[in-house]
Design brief:
about 30% helix; about 600 residues; Filamin/ABP280_repeat-like; alpha+beta; Herpes Virus-1; Znf-RING_euk; 6-stranded mixed sheet
Length: about 600
């Protein structure tokens, strides 16, 4: 007998495995618990005996087969998208899966499972396998060239035939301890031919007769040539699915932590309630029992919601793991042809799993508080205090109010109000929430205003700020780390303050200490000066952009000088911070501000 390593190289038998065959459970049907017989893969990647699947009761689905239905992508299954769907529920994961038009028989065969059944049979004691040629005798030999198991009679005939006389045949006993054996996979349309080619158009393995018949105009290649491209695409899908598995595991750990936190908070609140109830003897004891029951109901309610979310995520994780484990096993243990045969159903399942929406955040919060100072009504004739607070602020329900939320004046105090509400839209009625506010200039990202936040202790917060620069600002408000009014971002437009033109009484107030009598202010109605407020006294304005201007009491009956009109037209706004007012032949310099509007 030749060396085992030489047999492994010569007969295409892959790596040895120690002792017992790996994955014993993968060789048995989940329904009948027997070794797989004609195993078929459902689109959810669970494998069953074909006979067991035929015992399941299929049901019709209203409508027609859709493009994204959870079914295999074999080309022969897509002949007619307008057939009514037949579906079954997977006995393992309860997933509703669509059957192909040909029914159970057209499901993808699990050749990996067949190989593992063969290996387990080799390891087991007792009756051996049947001959692949006569199906009556017990197989004792294996022909790697024909990839067939032979009984003693067929082995003798195998040696006598000229065509097969040169084949190197090995005892089945010598195959024990190896991880897989090669067995030919025949074409379902041409049972005498092996599947050695791959049709690129139909994306399915074919034989030589297929490419000269039904697939004669389709591009094709040898399976060994295309396995790299299709194997890489499945590996990419596997990486994406593995990321979801890691995320789901983290989400479940988070939920477990929240569940533990809820239990801890419940115990802490229960302790507070018991301490508070001791002073009221019978009345407070009754009140205590009532509060504990309410707390327990709240705990059950929250844990029920968490348990439901946890069950959904666990099922999704189980589906993800099934997809990952099956694909990893296919890519690491499957032959090129087995990978290509199973590619359609595996890729379809992984894509569907990758598109499942799920939330990694717990569906309920762990916020449970006890308020001992809040009135709880009468208990046994005594007024009792202490209630359980289960209200939690919902940032999505918070509201911003105030005119200064959308417009403000430069360097002037502006303010608006934040109303904190719970998930039902009711005002919280209490303060103490962590509020973070930033007002950011739209064009100058480094211009950030940090306003003052005043907690009114009734669920409202007064926010005030002073904008230093002109422009548009974005208001960002976070409650418990989440933005409020995300759909309607608050935008503040800051404009320049336009001081009112001083009137007679205003200037007179400034001239009181000078004992100067103020002449009245009048408004002219002449062309460029139609909106210019002037006085009856002589005013000498300071130099503006290199132009010296002046006017006297008769200016309101004349046009402005050309140079002054040009300044107004070009700048649109001119401020004169000081001027000289002439009174009784003397000039008095005062501080004032005249605003010229174009």
């Amino acid at each position: 007998m030749s060396d085992p390593q030489e047999q492994q190289r010569q007969f295409g038998i892959m790596s040895e495995i120690p002792g017992e065959v790996r994955g014993l459970a993968r060789t048995r049907c989940p329904l009948c618990t027997e070794l797989f017989l004609a195993p078929k893969i459902l689109p959810c990647l669970h494998t069953f005996c074909m006979a067991c699947l035929e015992q399941l009761e299929p049901f019709s689905v209203l409508g027609f087969q859709a493009e994204d239905s959870d079914s295999t992508s074999d080309g022969s299954w897509l002949q007619d998208h307008h057939q009514p769907l037949l579906s079954v529920l997977c006995p393992v994961c309860d997933t509703e899966v669509d059957l192909p038009p040909g029914g159970i028989n057209d499901l993808t065969t699990d050749h990996l499972a067949m190989n593992e059944v063969l290996l387990e049979t080799l390891q087991a004691q007792g009756p051996g396998m049947l001959c692949d040629l006569c199906v009556d005798g017990e197989a004792v030999k294996h022909c790697p060239t024909c990839k067939a198991n032979l009984c003693h009679f067929c082995y003798q005939a195998h040696r006598r035939q000229k065509k097969t006389a040169s084949h190197a045949v090995v005892d089945l006993e010598d195959l024990k301890g190896y991880s897989r054996t090669e067995k030919s996979i025949l074409c379902p349309s041409h049972p005498s031919e092996d599947l050695t080619l791959f049709c690129e158009q139909c994306e399915q393995p074919v034989c030589r007769d297929c490419v000269v018949g039904e697939h004669r105009h389709h591009p094709y290649a040898f399976t060994a040539t295309v396995i790299h491209k299709h194997g890489d695409s499945m590996r990419d899908l596997l990486k994406s699915t593995q990321l979801h598995v890691d995320t789901l595991e983290g989400a479940l750990r988070h939920i477990e932590g929240v569940s533990n936190a809820i239990c801890s908070h419940v115990e802490a609140v229960a302790g507070e309630i018991r301490t508070f109830a001791d002073g009221y003897i019978r009345a407070i004891e009754e009140h205590r029992d009532r509060l504990l029951k309410q707390l327990e109901d709240l705990k059950v309610q929250k844990e029920t919601l968490l348990h439901l979310q946890k069950a959904q995520l666990e099922q999704l994780l189980m589906d993800m793991r099934t997809g990952v484990e099956f694909t990893e096993r296919l890519l690491t243990s499957g032959s090129d042809l087995e990978i290509l045969i199973t590619k359609g159903v595996v890729a379809n399942r992984l894509r569907k799993l990758n598109n499942v929406d799920y939330s990694i955040h717990p569906g309920v919060e762990d916020g449970i508080q006890f308020s001992p100072h809040e009135k709880a009504g009468q208990c046994c004739g005594y007024e009792v205090f202490g209630t359980i607070l289960n209200k939690a602020v919902d940032p999505a329900k918070c509201v911003l109010q105030g005119e200064d939320l959308h417009s403000a004046r430069q360097k002037q105090l502006a303010s608006f109000t934040l109303l904190c509400n719970d998930a039902s839209g009711e005002q919280m009625g209490k303060g103490g929430e962590p509020i973070r506010v930033m007002i950011i200039h739209k064009d100058k990202k480094d211009c950030i205003i940090k306003p003052s936040v005043c907690d009114k202790r009734d669920g409202t917060y007064h926010i005030s700020y002073i904008p230093e620069e002109l422009g548009t600002y974005t208001v960002c408000i976070c409650v418990k780390g989440q933005h409020v009014q995300v759909g309607t971002k608050a935008v503040v437009m800051v404009t320049k303050v336009t001081p009112a033109v001083p009137t007679g009484p205003a200037v007179a107030e400034q001239l009181k200490t000078l004992n100067a009598q103020l002449c009245r202010l009048v408004r002219t109605c002449r062309e460029a000066c139609s909106k210019l407020w002037r006085s009856d006294w002589r005013v000498e304005a300071p130099r503006a952009r290199g132009v010296s201007t002046g006017w006297d009491s008769g200016l309101n009956q004349q046009k402005c000088s050309d140079c002054h009109v040009a300044i107004i037209a070009r700048e649109h706004l001119t401020e004169i911070q000081s001027c000289c007012v002439g009174w009784k032949g003397r000039h008095v310099k005062i501080k004032m501000c005249l605003i010229f509007h174009p």
